[in-house]
Amino acid sequence: MNDLYREYILDLYRNPLNKGVLSEYTHKSHGHNPSCGDDIWVYIQMVDDKVKDISFEGKACALCIAGASTVTEKIKHMSIDEISHLSAEQVYQWLGIEMETTRIKCVTLALRTVQEMIG
Amino acid sequence: MKTLDTIRQEFSPLTQDIIYFDSGASTLTPNSVVEAMDAYYTQYRSNIHRGIYAWSQQSTDKYELARLKVAQFIQANQVEEIIFTRGTTDSINMIAELLINTFQKGQNIIIPVTEHHSNMLPWRELAQRQELEIRYAGLRDEILDIEELMGHIDENTALVVIGHVSNVLGSIHPIQEIAHKAHSVGALCVVDGAQSVAHIPISVSELGVDAYAFSGHKVYGSTGVGVLWVKYELLQTLTPSRTGGDMVSYVTLDTVEYAPIPQRFEAGTPPIAEVIGLSKAIDWLQEIGWDTIQEHEKKLIDYMWGQISLRPWIHVLGGDKTMSRIGCFAFTIQGIHTHDIAHMLAQHNVCVRAGQHCASGIAETLDIVGSTRITFGLYNTVEEIDICMQALDSIYKTFN
């Protein structure tokens, strides 16, 4: 069984990284999963086409919150070009879980929201 | 006489190590129904109403026998009141299409917020086109506020639509009273019976409604077939909204004469195998009998309440134990997202539904993301409830 709910994921769900609204941001975008009900907002402060700071807030499942925590943490200081090349597989790799299809929309909601926002 | 002890053996999928608690979405299909559909494809595969050969006659006879069985199953006054469709959603869209020109600007439609999207969106679309007012009936104590619904009905009400049973809350609504009130102001009453037909005996004539819709796949039949029952007197006033093959008596380049009711409302080749399957599913249910069905369901419901009362962290939506309900429990657990619960139950081989269950009005009104829903079929057992509850204990422990 693919242990999607291992302690690392649950810890990110209980204590999410980069949760909240940035005091200053240049970009803001909404992400929603109709099937699951995940609903998040992502805030980015872009400077010279690079992410200077990023945060998210919203109501979502454990996998979505864990995914958003990891994505926001990993893409800090990345360029628009670097972010545009990130894949779903990368997010699963960061989280240390096996790629699967049932919850891919949850795990990658934050990444998709960021890519649509700055793409 | 069929007994519940042997029923599980009639469902091939249940030989797997799976607990299926999602019958509200779709019931499993007994092997006898699958065999009846298979026989159509392997022994007398042909179209209905048109061939002059034996196979076609056999298909037509089975198809029309199904109509009779459905009419008897829901105690319709006339067999001609039964129209076969592709499912409940199709049935409701069809009755909305058929009724659209009977409504006038300024009239209102009453819709409970508890409705499945299939009994809400077709009416919203109709209301927009005909410039009708929509009046939503809300919730009280997390179930439909019948008093508010009744209060909305006035001399400008053209239609009251309502689910016989909520697909989220499991609550059985007082259809007879609502239809009576609707008729007292000259309004029609259309009922979504998707969640009721497998659980409670239906008599459309006693309910006194004008139209009633349900699906084959929620009553142990197959997907792709549904029923629209419409009172004959009303059907006589309606013009077919869908035209084409098999619904005409006589056509020239300038004229058309429609076939008699109900054939005029069944344009094109219908889902023949699925209708035959539905007929067999009704036979199957009736062999078990309503007393046995309801006794078993009550046993599961009572046991479920007992287990839930041991776990105060489970919040059942509309959690009134005295409420008249079917075996449908939608619940939330503080701090655990509904999809996480469903996914982790799936990892324990327990199949449930999560989300808003196509009835977003309930989640919106209660300001919740959604709920996890357990729904029972005749093949479920108290032992399965025990396993599910132990899985929920484990999930709760993992998150806390």
Structure overview:
The complex is a heterodimer of chains A (119) and B (400). With 119 residues, chain A is α+β, with helices and mostly antiparallel strands. Chain A has a single domain, classed as Sufe protein. Chain: A (Alpha-Beta Complex). Chain A is built from 6 helices and 3 strands. Chain A has helices at 7-14, 62-74, 80-84, 88-95, 104-107, 109-118, and strands spanning 27-32, 39-47, 50-59. The N and C termini of chain A lie far apart (36 Å). By secondary structure, chain B is of the alpha/beta class. Chain B has 2 domains: 4-30 and 289-399, Alpha-Beta Complex (Aspartate Aminotransferase, domain 1); 33-286, Aspartate Aminotransferase, domain 2. Helices cover 39% and strands 17% of the residues of chain B. In chain B, the strands form 5 sheets. Chain B has a 7-stranded mixed sheet with strand order 2-10-9-8-7-3-4, sandwiched between helices. In chain B, α2 packs antiparallel against α10, α3 (54-73) packs across α10 and α11 packs parallel to α14 (382-399). Chain B is globular and about 75 Å long. The model of chain B has no long low-confidence stretch (mean pLDDT 96). The interface between A and B is medium-sized, with 17 and 16 residues.
